[in-house]
């Protein structure tokens, strides 16, 4: 038997792989006939030997092949001898998360002859439904606005979403999770990336800062949203810098300890006068965009170039 699991959503494909392995282990207790083979470096002769060796427990074999599509020698030999495996009692499972050209001969063969399942990245309602289902797994719940906020912060990365859901469910003791809980405990991916942009600005690396800003824009982040995040971060830096200049405790900022720890290092790299000038420039950029005096992308570019 041939099984083919593929697609960029490695979280759900891993879950499916785990499900198949657990079912196999329940039925075949010895565990001696389960093999994970690195297809990238696999010699077809070694694979053939694994198939042909007789099991002393008379059990089915489960051979799991990963990254085999990059191994041309194996692909050619497998396709030449594939008829013997289609109706075999043993199971050969192909697992692939990298992009596969649709005209690939092995791909075409497996799509036709194997039990195949594709795992595309989730979006829209399917992603929202997945989040709600995952919350239920931890005996937690959230309304639609909270689900949207979580997706806004983390994106469609199911590994990241799963980690955040587990953390939030533990924090709320499996109760109802609210938007404020997400805002408190989950770091926005955009916010994290904005730290990188500001770090580049602080290092006087304008080229890197511009590249990061353009990356946000290419992903579809709105210019005014990016500007609001930059404003938020520089406001925090200015606040921390002011306390440092006055020799006062940073706790007086009333910022979250995580934010203080991230902001402290940046505050050390700016002169107080420069921070005030940047902060004034941010408001000018915001005004120019909102009044139509400047194209949003151009305004952001000029803001960074003039720092």
Automatic annotation (TrEMBL):
It catalyses: DNA(n) + a 2'-deoxyribonucleoside 5'-triphosphate = DNA(n+1) + diphosphate. It comes from the Bacteria. Residues 4-116 form the DNA polymerase III delta N-terminal domain. GO terms for biological process: DNA-templated DNA replication. Residues 191-306 form the DNA polymerase III delta subunit-like C-terminal domain. One of its GO terms (molecular function) is DNA binding. Keywords: DNA replication, DNA-directed DNA polymerase, Nucleotidyltransferase, Transferase. The keyword Transferase applies. SUPFAM superfamilies: P-loop containing nucleoside triphosphate hydrolases, post-AAA+ oligomerization domain-like. InterPro entries: DNA_pol3_clamp-load_cplx_C (IPR008921), DNA_pol3_delta-like_C (IPR048466), DNA_pol3_delta_N (IPR010372), DNA_polIII_delta (IPR005790), P-loop_NTPase (IPR027417). GO terms for cellular component: DNA polymerase III complex. Its EC number is 2.7.7.7. The keyword Cell membrane does not apply. Pfam families: DNA_pol3_delta, DNA_pol3_delta_C. Belongs to the DNA polymerase HolA subunit family. This is DNA polymerase III subunit delta. It comes from Candidatus Nealsonbacteria bacterium CG09_land_8_20_14_0_10_42_14.
